Amino acid sequence: QLQLVESGGGLVQPGGSLRLSCAASEFTLKDYAIGWFRQGPGKEREGVSCISSSGVSINYADSVKGRITMSRDNAKNTVSLIMNSLKPDDTGLYYCAAGLEVCSWYQEWYKYWGQGTQVTVSS
Fold it and tell me: Which end of the chain is more exposed for a tag (fewer CB within 10 A), N or C?
């Protein structure tokens, strides 16, 4: 069954903003590092960003650096991804994933994955 659930995707115009959320129902997200990955049409899945379990360390891919922000809301057991200045090449299916303690760009590091939420950036 699904262990993580993403929400907040949709259709936006270039330059627009979008907030994605990742939630878990069967475990506590604050115990895990959370990574965001995306897969665009005809592309391989790639890392977007990650945040350590403590929230102290946050990493962003060069392609999105300066345009996105990750944050935790431990009371709600959620992690958010705030995206600004969206570009057409940001289009893709966005996944959140939970790994142990620290951030990693290796997808194998993440044990729990969501179903993905679609982000489409188009005029």
Answer: N
